[in-house]
Design goal:
Elements: E1 8-13, H1 20-33, E2 38-42, H2 43-49, H3 58-77, E3 81-85, H4 91-102, E4 106-113, H5 116-122, H6 127-132, E5 154-157, H7 163-180
Parallel strand pairs: 1-3, 1-4, 2-3, 4-5
Length: about 180
């Protein structure tokens, strides 16, 4: 297993249903096949296993993502290539997360861009349907904002590009960063 001296963190942000976790999982598997220590930390997994009481107000999301950042920092400290898949809807909180992680690892913000209409059409978990009926409160894109990143290191457009194209693009970006180390 190839372990880096200092891990790399690739933070995928975008609306629910944009393709973050799908792309992240496929890239993680490619990296593992090449012998790298690689992990994906997904919002659903983290809430289910680490932070079960995390809420959805802006301040609750902020606290949740700070916990995630500190958790990820430990993986990075141990040379793990970490792909994070979180809606992380607020610009100021993403910057806070970046600053926490940068104390231990290189941090790259990946914007997984998909317009709201397409995410609602995809709705893999049925969450938009529930949010539109008012059954879920503070749902990003419906009654809570998603602030598109002003700056990012890589854009993955999941409306105009296939999953394979986006996986290849992220994989090549990560490989470039590994080779720069």
């Amino acid at each position: 297993m190839k372990c880096l001296d200092k891990g790399l963190v690739f933070w995928l942000t975008g609306l629910s249903g944009s393709g973050k976790t799908t792309i992240g999982n496929l890239v993680k598997e490619r990296l593992r096949k090449e012998g790298y220590k690689a992990e994906i930390i997904d919002g659903d997994w983290f809430r289910q296993n680490i932070d079960q009481n995390a809420g959805y107000t802006k301040e609750e999301r902020r606290k949740h993502l700070i916990r995630v950042a500190n958790f990820v920092k430990i993986l990075a400290r141990n040379g793990v290539i970490t792909i994070c898949s979180f809606v992380s809807p607020y610009e100021d909180v993403r910057n806070e997360v970046k600053n926490i992680i940068k104390s231990e690892a290189d941090f790259y913000l990946i914007y997984v861009k998909c317009d709201l209409e397409e995410c609602i059409k995809r709705d893999p978990k049925g969450l938009y349907k529930k949010a539109l009926k008012g059954e879920i409160k503070n749902f990003t894109g419906i009654d809570d904002p998603y602030e598109e990143p002003k700056e990012y290191d890589l854009l993955l457009d999941t409306v105009n590009n296939s999953i394979e194209e986006n996986v290849n693009k992220l994989y090549e970006f990560i490989n470039k960063k590994i080779n720069e180390k």
